């Protein structure tokens, strides 16, 4: 900041305007102090260190500080001048003012900028707090998405494989595990499927060969012995190989976990983006609350009652509604943007709860946890951005668009 003030004043000196006749200097320094509330004071001194203009410090204290600065030698370079000196409880930067830039050594005055150390520490603490809150919000959301991804890619296939092998140990070979890419786990699942198919094929071949032998033998006693041996073997193998193996839909709560986390976080960020608009017009706060609550409840009920054949379209509609709400908020339509975003967020939450209620036993806890994490992450992000409506709406738009591709395993059941 001292550099910018120095540059502006030296530009005036270069054009032949004396410091003591510079118009609007008090308004200029006052504007800088207002834009930088952490600044303790700003002072412009003349050639003999007389105060030409100052803001932020009483004249007596400023005179004492100027007297205390007289033992500080003139810096040899701009980099040295930018180093603060501690005087009278302030960290002070003193910059020379010259009449024609760097090539002229004659000093026509100084700029003093002082900052209290406590203000610097408070500013650093605020910035670290903002960074920590933002990082925590991102970490929470990424952790939820990572949990859903790990569950879908690793844990769910292993649980499915364990269930299939347990059924096979009891003689049930009627179920196959799902398709996967040709990675190590995918090869393991393919080997399990191949073993199930091989057992079924051997069983069918044995039964067919036994029937052929029985039909080819004319001795009734031998035919009865072959038939008895076939029946004993098939009974020993159990009914699990009687029908061809098939893949079954493997619905799991992690299918909806990532989708609901992104959609609800986007809706919450959009709602936070509408807060500054509601603050600007206090009488509109009841209308904001009522409209937002009705939209959220309507979306939630619509999602929970949506028929299964409409889930795909409803899931995409929810993400698009939140995205449209974010766009409306960016354009300044606070109320309509809030209604669209909360309706979309409620619809996404309702669809996810209905999905786990219909197809996944005990999966509601996963969806509710993802929803709670999304709300906490959105709140932390809003605090980190100091409730900046434009930045929050842009964040909501990004998350709502990311929720659309994440909905694919949610609306297309995997086997």
UniProtKB/TrEMBL annotation:
Superkingdom, taxonomy of origin: Bacteria
One of the GO BP terms on file: signal transduction
Chain coiled-coil ranges: none
Transmembrane segments: 128-155, 256-279, 285-302, 314-332, 338-356, 368-387, 393-411
Domain HAMP: 152-204
InterPro entries: HAMP_dom (IPR003660)
GO cellular component, one term: membrane
Keywords: Membrane, Transmembrane, Transmembrane helix
Signal peptide: none
Full protein name: HAMP domain-containing protein
Organism: Azospirillum thermophilum
């Amino acid at each position: 900041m001292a550099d910018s003030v120095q540059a502006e004043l030296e530009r005036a000196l270069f054009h032949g305007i004396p410091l003591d006749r510079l118009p609007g200097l008090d308004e200029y320094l006052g504007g800088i102090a207002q834009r930088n509330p952490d600044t303790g004071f700003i002072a412009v001194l003349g050639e003999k260190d007389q105060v030409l203009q100052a803001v932020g410090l009483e004249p007596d204290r400023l005179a004492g500080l100027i007297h205390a600065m007289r033992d500080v030698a003139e810096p040899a370079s701009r980099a040295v001048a930018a180093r603060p000196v501690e005087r009278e409880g302030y960290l002070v930067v003193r910059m020379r003012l010259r009449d024609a830039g760097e090539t002229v050594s004659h000093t026509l005055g100084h700029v003093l900028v002082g900052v209290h150390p406590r203000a610097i520490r408070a500013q650093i603490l605020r910035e670290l707090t903002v960074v920590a809150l933002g990082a925590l919000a991102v970490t929470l959301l990424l952790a939820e998405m990572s949990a859903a991804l790990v569950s879908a890619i690793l844990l769910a296939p292993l649980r499915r494989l364990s269930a299939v092998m347990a059924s096979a140990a009891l003689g049930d070979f009627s179920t196959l595990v799902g398709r996967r890419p040709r990675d190590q786990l995918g090869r393991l699942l393919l080997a399990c499927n191949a073993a199930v198919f091989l057992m079924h094929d051997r069983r069918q071949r044995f039964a067919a060969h036994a029937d052929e032998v029985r039909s080819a033998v004319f001795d009734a006693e031998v035919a009865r012995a072959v038939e008895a041996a076939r029946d004993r073997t098939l009974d020993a193998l159990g009914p699990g190989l009687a029908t061809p193996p098939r893949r079954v839909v493997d619905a799991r709560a992690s299918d909806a976990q990532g989708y609901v986390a992104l959609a609800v976080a986007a809706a919450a960020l959009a709602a936070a983006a509408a807060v500054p608009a509601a603050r600007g017009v206090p009488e509109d706060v009841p209308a904001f609350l009522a409209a937002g609550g009705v939209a959220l409840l309507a979306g939630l009920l619509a999602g929970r009652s949506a028929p299964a054949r409409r889930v795909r379209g409803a899931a995409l509609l929810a993400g698009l509604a939140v995205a449209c709400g974010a766009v409306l908020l960016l354009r300044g339509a606070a109320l309509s943007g809030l209604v669209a975003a909360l309706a979309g967020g409620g619809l996404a939450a309702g669809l996810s709860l209905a999905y786990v209620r219909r197809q996944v036993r005990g999966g509601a806890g996963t969806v509710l946890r993802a929803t709670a994490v999304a709300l906490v992450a959105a709140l932390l992000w809003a605090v980190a951005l100091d409730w900046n409506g434009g930045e929050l709406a842009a964040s909501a738009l990004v998350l709502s668009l990311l929720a659309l591709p994440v909905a694919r395993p949610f609306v297309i059941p995997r086997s």
